[in-house]
């Protein structure tokens, strides 16, 4: 018999039971449900709403249920509908009428809101930890590659010279923002909705703050209707995870390109690549491709919940049961991607020679050649035109800015002198971009220091590399 069956004269159809039940997926919140119930029972006793002896019996039995679930000695039944009713029914079976008093002054509406916040708070911290490990890996790679010159791209065309370290720090900046976004989400999520009841609170003299503090919340939700119907924190989390996956996907695309024969800037470890069933020469970057593909899956979770919530009136509606599967799947997806992605980066081999060879082609030092003329007193637009003509001439003659003679240069402007060859050297081009955020070694070192401080403020130790 269902706990809510008193009002009804007939059993629900089996198909309705199957559609209605959430226990196949919300059972993962068993720990949070039990922790919330323990805090609630303790508060009920402290407020004199139930006897202390009954509360102690409830708390002890809930502890036993938790142990049984974690030991695999607990049966989740579809007939119980959800994790809340499953645990309450088992509690009543074990200790009798005292178990029936647990639900005093609460509803499944505020109970599930509590459980979900507790669950996501834990998982956000896990995700943040994994991102921090990824940032540390990028920091370590960058500290070893500050002199690894390579082309930087716009429109996927070789544009200007940079270093692999500078490239890695760009992604570190993205992932730092992901961390702070999740930290912000965690702060807004850190309010207990328990005590909101079904939607208008309760007539019992409860102490909401006592429960909130016992469960580690910073405070309580201010409006009971909002407390049970708010899923902004889930949508915000899914948005943050979508941005995180977008960053992972962008770096995945770089990895796919860089390990191709056309680039060969890197080679992935055999442990993080796969082969072909028909082409024996293949070494496929499947980790990067899967992360890139799973990004769309997380996007889908965000869109699904936004669509679910867009037309719901206050307060709780059964539609909101659809919040859990998308966010559970998104969290699982992110946590499956991050560790293997970090390991893939940590074990890849970097080809400095291939990077530098690519940087020597494509006239990526053309801007520096124009800047050289500007320093000689020529307006930038005039210098731009002259260097454009030089590049066109080089293309026709099969030359580069490094292989042109001084005579060739002076045919375009008498301002050119012997020092132009030093000005267009790749190392000079990189070193001269010594502005905050730039690729010059001192600028990249400042970025490394900033990342190191960011990580250490969050308890992640970074060992400076020579």
Keywords:
single chain, 466 residues, mainly alpha, Fumarase C, Chain B, domain 1, Fumarase C, Chain A, domain 2, Ribonucleotide Reductase Protein R1, domain 1, two-stranded antiparallel ribbon, two-stranded parallel ribbon, 6 strands, 61% helix
Describe this structure in words.
The chain has 466 residues and is mostly helical. The protein folds into 3 domains: 5-104, Fumarase C, Chain B, domain 1 (Orthogonal Bundle); 109-357, Up-down Bundle (Fumarase C, Chain A, domain 2); 362-453, Ribonucleotide Reductase Protein R1, domain 1 (Orthogonal Bundle), CATH 1.10.40. It has helices at residues 14-20, 23-26, 30-46, 52-70, 83-95, 97-100, 108-144, 164-189, 208-214, 224-229, 232-258, 286-309, 324-347, 352-359, 366-375, 380-397, 406-410, 420-423, 426-431, 441-457; strands at 149-154, 157-163, 191-192, 219-220, 266-267, 349-350. The strands form 3 sheets. It has a two-stranded antiparallel ribbon. A two-stranded parallel sheet has the order 3-4. It has a two-stranded antiparallel ribbon with strand order 5-6. Helix 3 (30-46) packs antiparallel against helix 4, helix 3 (30-46) crosses helix 7 and helix 15 (366-375) packs across helix 16 (380-397).
